[in-house]
Amino acid sequence: MMPNHLHLLVYVQKDCKGLNSVLGEGKRFMAYEIISRLKDKNEKSILAQLAKGVQVNERSKGKKHQVFRLSFDAKAVVGDESINKVLDYMHHNHCEWQVESS
Questions:
Q1: Closest residue by Cα to residue 34 from 68, 72, 10
Q2: pTM of the prediction?
Q3: Which of 31, 36, 39, 95 could, after both became Cys, cross-link 67 (CB 3.0–4.6 A)?
């Protein structure tokens, strides 16, 4: 996890609702927890910034904060070799960010 993006390797069963649904539900639960912790710490400026990100049509439905972007970039990964390449990339991307941000 980096400050501006997150890499996930997600297994989705063939009989599930679909990747959009699985990720949407995951993002929703993470957002609830993030907002809860920000409220507990009285982080009013961050909460205000997240509130500004809510689209008008979503605000009318009662949405109060936009924690994640509405889109994501998904790539199918099949087989052990491909999975290992992705995991290696994710590990090194995180390490490179730490070095660059130090």
A1: 68
A2: 0.72
A3: 31
The CA distance from 43 to 51, in Å, is 12
In a domain, residue 9? The reply is no
Residue range of the domain that includes 49: 19-101
Tell me if 3 is assigned to some domain.
no
Q: Give me the helices (H) in 16-102, please.
A: 19-40, 44-52, 56-59, 80-101
The verdict on residue 25 lying in a domain is yes
CB of 65 closer than 8 Å to CB of 50: yes
Tens-binned pLDDT, residue by residue, of the chain (102 aa): 556 778 888 888 888 888 888 888 989 999 999 999 999 999 999 999 999 999 999 999 999 999 998 778 888 899 999 999 999 988 887 665 554 544
